[in-house]
# Entry
Amino acid sequence: METRLKPTHHQIAEILIDKRISDMTQYLIEDYGYSLEKALDLVYTSKTIELLQIEDAELYVQSSAYVYEMLIKELGLYPVFDNDNPTMVAEDPFSY
# Structure
């Protein structure tokens, strides 16, 4: 008989947190054209990631899109849609 180890709550949380971070980074790259480094910097210096990493709060059980919306609001990145072009055009408050 095969014995399977059941993952702990902590292990599941770590996997889901890593997935949310990966997805948010990818979304920033796709939606705003940020480099990988810039997207990671925005994610890892945000309040959203601090909340995400509080296991007892269980924010990590929410979808990546939900957590990403929190990040977008925190960063003040509101997409602007160009009526002539259905693709998203973003205003970047972080361009210097």
Observations:
- The radius of gyration is 16 Å.
- The chain is about 55% helix and 10% strand.
- The chain has a mean pLDDT of 86.
- The beta strands are 79-82, 85-90.
